[in-house]
């Protein structure tokens, strides 16, 4: 215990002079260099064959990259994506509350909704929304089995863009509802019990305790869905809705008989928007990872 | 001081499907009393405690806190379920500390403690923070107020959980095996906090396997087996002179 040469005796006061830090030689990674060279050469070769290939018509690509209908198409596609996702998130939130409620009628309704919208093709649903004004020419509020109180022609309300948003959004809500449910299920029941034990109401428990935790698991697949929705907007042609990016580039391609550069234009803009969405997702994930994705103390 | 016990249980039965988890439990806990519950695993200790703050609904009997029937309005011999608002209000009177801590992982220690006062009691934030820091100080953790649960040891987490329950100023604190999930060297710090509460007159019910601790702090010791209270009384009497064969068998295993 009292020995002068025990580990504690030599520790104190000598840290700065006496500790010889380990000299660390990093492991060599020759494979990485080989991979770099091979992939670099491949990349250069592919890039060269693309850029120098006259069939790609890069001059046409540049000419139409910022064409007014293309830029408007990007705007419409973004607008459809954002509004349809917003509608889907609101519906999915309602669906998940309905599914977890004590009320058997609400539970069944939510189940049927998810069953229907997941079980039928999106294209078919969009066609249906496009035909809605034909099937139901007037939207009205009336006494059940009695006279009409108030009504308007359907095509005043269900315009092509509304039909597109309804079609995309309602279909998506069914998928999001399942993603949300999985997110809430991943939380231990102890969290609800702890919140109940301090007397929190059910709504508050959902909003303040469960939702922030569920967000961690909900965000990555919802990001996937958003990107899927972005590209899914090209299906609104079924409504028919004719202002989105894909329709705009196709229209130009058909006019100038050059499909390839216009496909590249569309691809370019989809990539740009997707990149922006991914940045947003990164910040959302960081926000909701608070306290749980702790990186402190990890060896970098 | 009033004669009404803080908690009184009258003929509590609980069925989980066909499992008869509680078979007619009668028990009462007076103000300032520390009641320790011991018994083999599966004897219904947790279930009994969860019935008191309505995490479980009872199948028969009555739970009263300060004389008020919990969960129901009894009229014409029938039990009418109370609206959620009333049940939440009743739950506030009982603080619960869980074996697995159940801290909110997305909130810091302080945020865990002030969640109830702000969200439920509608306290002003500054006031809640002051109260919360005081409670964290009381459990010896005011220097870790900004840590998230994942950055604290089990013992520290459990002490924060105790502070969170205390923040609601409950009539009674319920502890369900508060040290069973802890490494042995961390048990002491949590027991010290509980001991301190006992000294300060907090009414408590404590399920524990720490028989020595129960002997030290409890005013009343209850032995449960197979859903029944087999025996109860002063800790020294019960531990040193058990009347029932089942109590003797259990004690011989754990002492
Ligand atoms: N949610 C539940 N569903 C079904 N059975 C349960 C449930 N909770 C507890 N039980 C049963 O009730 C009995 C008492 O359990 P519990 O109160 O946890 O015992 P203890 O805390 O004394 O170990 C056990 O037989 C257990 O299997
Ligand atoms: Mg238990």
From TrEMBL, chain A:
Membrane topology category: Multi-pass membrane protein
Ranges of residues in domain ABC transmembrane type-1: 74-281
Name of one Pfam family that matches: BPD_transp_1
GO BP of this protein: amino acid transport; transmembrane transport
Record-annotated membrane-spanning stretches: 33-51, 71-98, 110-136, 156-177, 263-284
InterPro entries: ArtM/GltK/GlnP/TcyL/YhdX-like (IPR043429), MetI-like (IPR000515), MetI-like_sf (IPR035906)
Origin superkingdom: Bacteria
Compartments where found: Cell membrane
Record-linked PROSITE patterns: ABC_TM1
GO CC terms, sorted: plasma membrane
Keywords from the named record: Amino-acid transport, Membrane, Transmembrane, Transmembrane helix, Transport
Main location: membrane
Protein family (similarity comment): Belongs to the binding-protein-dependent transport system permease family.
Protein name: Amino acid ABC transporter permease
Record organism: Paracoccus caeni
Organism lineage string: Bacteria, Pseudomonadati, Pseudomonadota, Alphaproteobacteria, Rhodobacterales
UniProtKB/TrEMBL annotation, chain B:
Record SUPFAM superfamilies: P-loop containing nucleoside triphosphate hydrolases
MF-aspect GO terms: ABC-type amino acid transporter activity; ATP binding; ATP hydrolysis activity
Keyword match Membrane: no
Stretches of the chain forming a coiled coil according to its record: none
Pfam families: ABC_tran
UniProt source species: Paracoccus caeni
Database matches in SMART domains: AAA
Keywords on record: ATP-binding, Nucleotide-binding, Transport
Similarity comment text for this entry: Belongs to the ABC transporter superfamily.
Superkingdom to which the source organism belongs: Bacteria
Domain ABC transporter: 7-251
Record has Ribosomal protein as a keyword: no
Protein name: Amino acid ABC transporter ATP-binding protein
């Amino acid at each position: 215990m009292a020995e002068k040469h025990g580990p504690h005796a030599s520790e104190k006061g000598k840290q700065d002079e006496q500790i010889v830090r380990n000299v660390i030689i990093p492991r060599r990674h020759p494979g990485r260099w080989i991979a770099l060279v091979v992939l670099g050469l491949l990349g250069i070769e592919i890039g060269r064959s693309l850029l120098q290939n006259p069939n790609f018509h890069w001059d046409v690509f540049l000419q139409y990259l910022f064409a007014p209908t293309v830029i408007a198409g990007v705007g419409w596609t973004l607008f459809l994506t954002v509004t349809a996702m917003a509608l889907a998130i609101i519906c999915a939130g309602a669906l998940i509350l309905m599914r977890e409620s004590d009320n058997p009628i609400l539970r069944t309704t939510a189940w049927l909704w998810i069953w229907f919208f997941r079980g039928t093709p999106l294209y078919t649903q969009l066609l249906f929304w496009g035909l809605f004004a034909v099937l139901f020419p007037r939207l009205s509020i009336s006494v059940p089995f009695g006279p009409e109180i108030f009504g308007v022609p359907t095509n005043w309300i269900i315009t092509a863009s509304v039909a597109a948003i309804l079609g995309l959004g309602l279909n998506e809500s069914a998928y999001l509802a399942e993603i949300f449910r999985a997110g809430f299920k991943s939380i231990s029941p102890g969290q609800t019990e702890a919140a109940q034990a301090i007397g929190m109401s059910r709504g508050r428990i959902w909003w303040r305790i469960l939702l922030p935790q569920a967000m961690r698991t909900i965000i990555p697949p919802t990001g996937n869905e958003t990107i899927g929705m972005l590209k899914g907007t090209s299906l609104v042609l079924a409504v028919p809705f004719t202002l989105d990016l894909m329709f705009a580039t196709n229209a130009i391609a058909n006019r100038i008989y050059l499909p390839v550069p216009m496909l590249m234009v569309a691809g370019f803009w989809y990539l740009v928007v997707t990149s922006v969405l991914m940045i947003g997702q990164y910040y959302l994930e960081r926000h909701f990872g608070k306290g749980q994705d702790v990186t402190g103390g990890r060896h970098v | 001081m009033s004669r009404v016990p803080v908690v009184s249980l009258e003929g509590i039965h609980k069925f989980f499907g066909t499992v008869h988890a509680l078979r007619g439990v009668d028990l009462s806990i007076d103000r300032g009393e520390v009641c320790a519950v011991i018994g083999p695993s599966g004897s219904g200790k947790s279930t009994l405690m969860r019935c008191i703050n309505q995490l479980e609904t009872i199948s028969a009997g009555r739970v009263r806190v300060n004389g008020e029937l919990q969960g129901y309005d009894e009229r014409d011999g029938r039990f009418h379920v109370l609206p959620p608002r009333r049940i939440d209000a009743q739950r506030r009177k009982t603080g619960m500390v869980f074996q697995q801590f159940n801290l909110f992982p997305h909130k810091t220690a302080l945020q865990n403690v002030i969640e109830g006062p702000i969200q439920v009691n509608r306290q002003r934030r500054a006031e809640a923070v002051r109260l919360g820091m005081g409670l964290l100080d009381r459990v010896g953790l005011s220097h870790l107020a900004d840590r998230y649960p994942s950055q604290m040891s089990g013992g520290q987490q459990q002490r924060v959980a105790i502070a969170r329950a205390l923040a609601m100023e409950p009539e009674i604190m319920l502890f369900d095996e508060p040290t069973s999930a802890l490494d042995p060297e961390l048990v002491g710090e949590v027991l010290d906090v509980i001991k301190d509460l006992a000294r300060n007159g907090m009414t408590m019910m404590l399920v524990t396997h720490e028989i020595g601790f129960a002997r030290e702090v409890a005013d009343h010791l209850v032995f449960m087996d197979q859903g029944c209270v087999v025996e109860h009384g002063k800790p020294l009497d019960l531990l040193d002179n058990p009347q029932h064969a089942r109590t003797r068998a259990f004690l011989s295993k754990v002492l």
